[in-house]
Amino acid sequence: MRDEDARKWEANQTELERIREEQAQKWAANQAELKRMREEDAQKWEQQNRRWDENQAERRRLWDENRAEQSRLWEESRADSNRRWDENHEELKRLHNEIMAQAQKFDRSIGALGSRWGLQSEKAFRDALAAILEQSFDVQVVNVTDYDDSGEVFGRPDQIELDVIIKNGLLLICELKSSIDKAGMYIFERKARFYERRHERKANRLIVISPMIDGRARKVGERLGIEMYGDSTEVEAV
After folding, report:
1. pLDDT of residue 118
2. How many Cβ atoms sit within 10 Å of the Cβ of residue 52?
3. Which residues are paired to 173 by β-bridges?
4. What's the DSSP call for residue 237?
5. Who has the most CB within 10 Å: 42, 53, 173, 186?
6. CA-CA distance, 108 to 4, in Å (whole number)?
7. What is the average pLDDT value for the chain, to the nearest integer?
């Protein structure tokens, strides 16, 4: 068992290293793109300065002939410069937000591995996914606890926990986990059907959000009509 645990730990470390290398590559690519944009901005500013000099020379030549016209051109040039600056600034902000979103997604992937290996609680990981859903779609993720007296879900009476979203008359039943296997996918489907029968209401969507969905579990989810996402940010509009 120790050898098996060591093997699993080594495999986990290898996966962590792969994820880190992948994110490092993405980060490097983003940095290269930012550098390219800055260089383009510098070129645009150089072109703008050259145009400025040309306009000034033209303005001096035509000062006596058309002072009012040159004043208008100057205002247009300044407005164009401000517009370009604002556009470039907004583009840099957009790229920054995308990079931060990727970094946060990477952190959640690391958190999922931590939950799987006991380095942080499953509840903390679930709360993080729920918070992103609430922020992204302006909904409330409600944790519902029922008691299965007849043992429909686990084969014996036990407590059943589910996350549900109710919005504009729609009912969404969610499973937010750091990882899920084939058995977990079947259990989620049974819990959802138990909730429907208990509350006499059909769910509009069944959703599993987990960065680690086993390949066999994914096939089960597809067969059962369960939507599966690797992160809360990937969920289609609620």
Report:
1. 45
2. 14
3. 164, 206
4. P
5. 173
6. 26
7. 82
